[in-house]
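Retro notes, item 3 of 5
We never archived the inputs for the pyridoxal-5'-phosphate complex last cycle. Fixing that now. Sequence and ligand:
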Amino acid sequence: MISERLKKQLSAGSQIRKMFEEGNRLKAIYGADKVYDFSIGNPDLEPPHEVSDALKELSNNPTPGMHGYMSNSGYESTRSAIAAKKSAESGLDIKSDAICMTVGAASAMNDVLHSLLDQDDEVIVIAPYFMEYNGYISNHGGKAVIVQTDDKFMPVISSIEAAITPRTKAIIINSPNNPSGVVYPSSLLSELNEMLKKQDHVVHVISDEPYIDLVYDGMTVPCALKYIDNLIVCFSWSKSLSLPGERIGYTLVSPKNEDYADLTAAIVLSNRTLGSVNAPAIWQRVIEKSLNAKVDVSNYENRRNLLYSNIIDAGFDAVKPNGALYIFMNTPEGLTDDKFSEICASKNLLLVKGSSFSRPGYCRLAFCVSESTIRNSRQAFFAIADELGLSHRASL
Ligand SMILES: Cc1ncc(COP(=O)(O)O)c(C=O)c1O
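Structure as it came back at the time:
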């Protein structure tokens, strides 16, 4: 008999997965070029050449023990290189022991939550948010407390403060955000820090940063380490180096964090006992050799522009995202996101309901799909707008 908790999670299912299967079904009927599947955020750019160069160099020059166990926090040389990079970015003196190499951001988040949570502790999540957080939190006995953002998807500090209770252990922030694509300004991070300093117990901020390198319009993402004291960063190279299948990331505890010593030790222990033991050896070496590389972000920016134009020109509304891989469009007035996604699917256009991110009334479209898919989908957006009686803002 499986646990009641898992039974609930299984029956809730994943809407993103269902859409993925629906996409495959439609492609088999109509042909892949007639289906516009914006449901899955799977980075489709190839990793930059630094990654394959490093892999070749490693396989051509094997060293004894290179596939062996290591310290549970990862190779010292990899962690030192990351610490130096993050010190330069933040102006803080970050030591290698602040860092634990992990199996992607998902494992990083689980290590951190496992380290922080006792049964029924609360974690504030800011909607719309990546729904996997629910599983990560409940894995360790915690409860997600949802706080909504404003209509531009910016967190409202007073709403977060109102949700804090004696059981609040942490707040998860995610900028650039999945699914909204918004980037939080430094002023907001400072305001959050000031509010947290006034609380009568420590509330940690977990900054989930897999999209930090994917920003557009010449923007840079404010470094959360500069602005928030009790911070723990969770990072992965899934998006910035297009390596989601390889599973490599890290946790970083800020030197300003009041629980620094306990937390750094607890995270390494969690990494071991939750079953990762250590992050993949080869990928730690590759990362060390390609630390400053990233995918060609202009490619994603171009696709964002094309998809955003399709949405706006057809007559729909959306906040233009500054980062990540998604547009979170408004569903037209009077339609639920359920109904709207059904209408879109009838025109072979697949997206994910906002309810899947705890924000009904919107739908998420991932623009990590080919440029031709985005160009070909334009007529589908216009046909859906026609069916709903919306006025176009530009011609087809
Ligand atoms: C906001 C967010 N956090 C974490 C993750 C997990 O990333 P990883 O593949 O590094 O585990 C994702 C993946 O899509 C994500 O969108």
